[in-house]
Design brief:
The complex is a heterodimer.
Chain A (H helix, E strand, L loop, with lengths): L3 H11 L5 H18 L33 H9 L4 E2 L2 E2 L6
Antiparallel strand pairs in A: 1-2
Chain B lengths: L1 H9 L5 H19 L2 E4 L1 H16 L11 E5 L26 H8 L3 E6 L33 H8 L5 E6 L5 H6 L3 E4 L19 E6 L2 H11 L29 E5 L9 H16 L3 E5 L7 H16 L25 H12 L2 H14 L5 H24 L2 E5 L15 H6 L5 H6 L3 E11 L2 E11 L4 H13 L1
Parallel strand pairs in B: 2-3, 2-4, 7-8, 7-9
Antiparallel strand pairs in B: 1-3, 4-6, 5-6, 5-10, 9-11, 10-11
Helix pairs in contact in B: 2-3, 7-15, 9-11, 9-12
Classes of the chains: A mainly alpha, B alpha/beta.
Chain lengths: 95, 480
C-alpha cells in the first residue's frame, strides 16, 4: 500500500492540490491499480527493446523555418489567455 | 444512408436546409433527455446548408458529405467554437483553429450541428465522467451510451446526426458504437491526423467515424484520412476512397479467432451471439482459423501503465496560465502569497475531475524517479512482444474477430465508483490501440435485458493500414 507521504509527493510532482480526505482515497485506489500491474513482473523481457513508434516511423524532419499564423488565429489564442497585457500573456513572477 | 441522402439532395427531392432544420427539431425534442450535445451551432449549420443548396441549384458538383448534418466530439478544435473536452478546466475555451480532420470535413461542405458530450478528456468508458452532463443511451435511457465518445454515438443512434466523429484511445469509438447499435471505426495509428485533437495518450489516439453502416463509415474515413504535415506521425501513404473497396464478398477471407478472447469469463450469451456471427461469416465463404495470442493477458496492465503516463504528460499544459480556468483569487490558498505554484495547484485541483486526476497521479507515479524502469519501460517492452504476437497472427489470417465489449450497455451509476471494473470494459478494444492496428465494431445481435433488446457489438481487427478489408467485411455482413 502506498504511504500517505507517497501520495503527497506524487500530487506535488503532478501540480495538483489535494484535500486531506483525498489522500486516503488515492492511497487505496492507486495501490489497487498498482497491484494489478504486478502481473507484468512475470514476463521475461531480457534483450527486448522497448517499443518506440508503433508503426515504425522514425524522426520526421522539416526545415527549421518559422511560419506565420493568420491574424485571426493569433487573436483567438490571445483571447484565450486568462490574463493579458498588451496582447501578451501575463504570468506571475517565477522567482 | 449517406449515399441516399446525397442522391435526394442532388435530384432536388430534399434540400439541405430542410434536412438540417429537421435534425434541429429532433434535437430540441429529444436532447433534453438524452443530453448528447454540449454545444449547438444552429446558425452556422443553417448557413452552411443554404450554401450547399445554392451550389446544387447552380449545378455545381458536390461531395458525398456535402449538406449532410453531422456531429463532432468536443475534444476536436472547431475554429470559433467552444471546445471543452467536457472539462471544467476548458469551460470558456474557444478554439482558435480547426483540427485537420475538421478542416477536411469542412472542405466536403459537411453541415456541423454541434459538439457532443464525452468522458472528461476522453478518460472513461461510459460518458459519466463528463463535467457537464450524463448522456443517456437512446435505446434505453436508464443505461449509458458507452464512452468516451458517448455523446457522438447517442446523437447518431437518436437520429440527431447522420454520422459523427469520435476519438479512440482504447475503445472510445468502438465500445459506444457497440452499446448504441452502430458501426464505429478506429483507423490505423497514423491514418488520420491528430492535429487539433486534444491529446489524451499521444501514441494511442485516433479520430474515426461513428455511423449507421459500413458504407457511411467508409465515406467519412476517406474524407478525413491522409498525410498531414502538422502531425508527424501520419503515414506517408495517403488515404483512399474506401467506399470503392466494398465488394460485398468475403470469399476466402481468413478470420482469426483467438482462444484467449473466448475464455470462461466471457458472458455466455455474448459468446453465443459471437459464434453465430462467425458461423454467418463462414457461410458467406470466410475461413475460421484458431489463434493464440500468448501476451494477450498483459494488454490491460500495459495499457493502464502507458496511457496514464502519457496522460500525465499531456495534461501538464493545463496550468491556469495559457488558457482555460485560472484560479488565482487566493481563496483556495494553502501556501499563501498568490504564487505561480499556487495558481497551478488550485487551477488543476478545481478544474479537473476525479478520473482525470486519478490518471495524472498514476502516470506521474509510473514516470517518477526510481519507478520509470519498473513500469513505463517494462510496459513498452511487453507492448513490443504483444505487437510481435499480432505480426505472427496476421501472417496466418486477414482479420481477427472478438466481441467489442464483454457486456451490453450497463446501467448509469453501475460502475462509476469502481475504476478497475470500468477499465475492464475495454478488455477487447485496447489491444488495437496498443499495437496501432485498425479495428471496427458492428452490430452482430441483440440481448434482451429488462424487456429491452440491447445491441451486441462484434469487433474485427485488421492489418496495419488495411481499413478497406474491415469495411468490406462489415459491409458484406450487413448485406447477408
Amino acid at each position: 500500500m502506498l504511504k500517505k507521504e507517497d501520495i503527497i509527493h506524487i500530487a506535488e510532482l503532478a501540480r495538483i492540490g489535494l484535500k486531506e480526505d483525498e489522500i486516503e482515497k488515492y492511497q487505496r485506489e492507486l495501490s489497487l491499480i498498482l497491484d494489478y500491474f504486478k502481473k507484468l513482473d512475470t514476463v521475461d523481457t531480457d534483450n527486448i527493446e522497448p517499443i518506440g513508434h508503433i508503426t515504425g516511423i522514425n524522426s520526421v524532419l522539416r526545415e527549421d523555418v518559422s511560419q506565420a499564423s493568420d491574424d485571426d488565429v493569433k487573436d483567438g489564442i490571445v483571447k484565450n489567455f486568462p490574463q493579458t497585457v498588451n496582447n501578451k500573456v501575463k504570468v506571475k513572477s517565477v522567482l | 444512408m449517406i449515399k441516399e441522402i446525397h442522391e435526394n439532395l442532388k435530384n432536388g427531392k430534399i434540400t439541405s436546409l430542410d434536412l438540417t432544420k429537421n435534425y434541429f427539431e429532433n434535437i430540441k425534442k429529444k436532447d433534453g433527455e438524452i443530453l448528447a450535445y454540449l454545444t449547438l451551432d444552429e446558425e452556422g449549420a443553417l448557413k452552411k446548408a443554404q450554401e450547399v443548396d445554392d451550389k446544387i441549384k447552380k449545378g455545381e458538383e458536390i461531395d458525398l458529405l456535402a449538406g449532410i448534418p453531422m456531429a463532432v466530439k468536443d475534444n476536436m478544435c472547431v475554429k470559433g467554437t467552444r471546445t471543452t473536452a467536457a472539462s471544467k478546466i476548458l469551460d470558456n475555451y474557444i478554439a482558435p483553429y480547426d483540427a485537420t480532420a475538421i478542416k477536411r470535413i469542412k472542405k466536403s461542405d459537411a453541415v456541423m450541428l454541434g459538439k457532443t458530450n464525452m468522458d472528461e478528456f476522453a478518460m472513461g468508458a461510459s460518458t459519466e465522467t463528463s463535467a457537464y452532463q450524463i448522456t443517456k443511451n437512446p435505446l434505453d435511457t436508464s443505461r449509458v451510451p458507452g464512452g468516451s465518445s458517448g455523446g457522438s454515438a447517442a446523437a447518431v443512434a437518436g437520429d440527431m446526426a447522420v454520422y459523427a466523429l469520435g476519438s479512440d484511445t482504447g475503445g472510445s469509438i468502438r465500445q459506444p458504437a457497440s452499446f448504441c447499435g452502430l458501426v464505429g471505426l478506429k483507423p490505423t495509428y497514423g491514418r488520420v491526423s491528430r492535429h487539433g485533437l486534444m491529446a489524451m495518450a499521444s501514441s494511442f489516439d485516433q479520430i474515426g467515424p461513428i455511423a449507421h453502416n459500413a458504407e457511411d463509415a467508409a465515406i467519412v474515413l476517406s474524407r478525413i484520412a491522409g498525410r498531414d504535415k502538422k502531425d508527424a506521425t501520419t503515414a506517408q501513404s495517403g488515404g483512399k476512397f474506401y467506399e470503392n473497396f466494398l465488394q460485398g464478398t468475403v470469399k476466402g477471407m481468413k478470420i482469426g479467432v483467438p482462444k484467449e478472447y473466448f475464455g470462461s469469463e466471457l458472458n455466455e450469451e455474448i459468446r453465443k451471439i459471437s459464434f453465430a456471427a462467425l458461423e454467418k461469416f463462414k457461410a458467406m465463404g470466410a475461413e475460421l482459423v484458431e489463434l493464440e495470442i500468448p501476451h494477450n493477458e498483459y494488454a490491460l496492465p500495459i495499457y493502464y501503465i502507458l496511457v496514464p503516463s502519457e496522460v500525465s504528460s499531456n495534461m501538464a499544459r493545463f496550468d491556469g496560465i495559457r488558457y482555460g480556468l485560472s484560479v488565482d483569487d487566493g481563496e483556495q490558498s494553502k501556501i499563501g502569497g498568490g504564487t505561480l505554484l499556487e495558481t497551478y495547484l488550485d487551477s488543476r485541483e478545481i478544474g479537473f475531475g476525479d478520473e482525470v486526476k486519478r490518471r495524472i497521479m498514476l502516470g506521474t507515479y509510473a514516470l517518477s524517479a526510481g519507478y520509470y524502469d519498473a513500469y513505463y519501460k517494462k510496459a513498452q517492452k511487453v507492448r513490443r512482444l504483444l505487437r510481435q504476437d499480432f505480426e505472427k497472427a496476421f501472417e496466418k489470417v486477414d482479420v481477427i474477430f472478438s466481441p467489442t465489449a464483454p457486456e451490453v450497455a450497463f446501467k448509469i451509476g453501475e460502475k462509476i465508483l469502481d475504476p478497475l471494473q470500468m477499465y475492464l470494459s475495454d478488455i477487447y478494444t485496447i489491444t488495437a490501440n496498443l499495437i496501432g492496428a485498425p479495428a471496427i465494431s458492428f452490430p452482430i445481435g441483440k440481448l434482451n435485458k429488462d424487456g429491452v433488446d440491447l445491441p451486441v457489438g462484434g469487433q474485427l481487427m485488421g492489418k496495419w493500414f488495411g481499413e478497406e478489408e474491415l469495411l468490406n467485411a462489415v459491409y458484406t455482413f450487413e448485406k447477408n
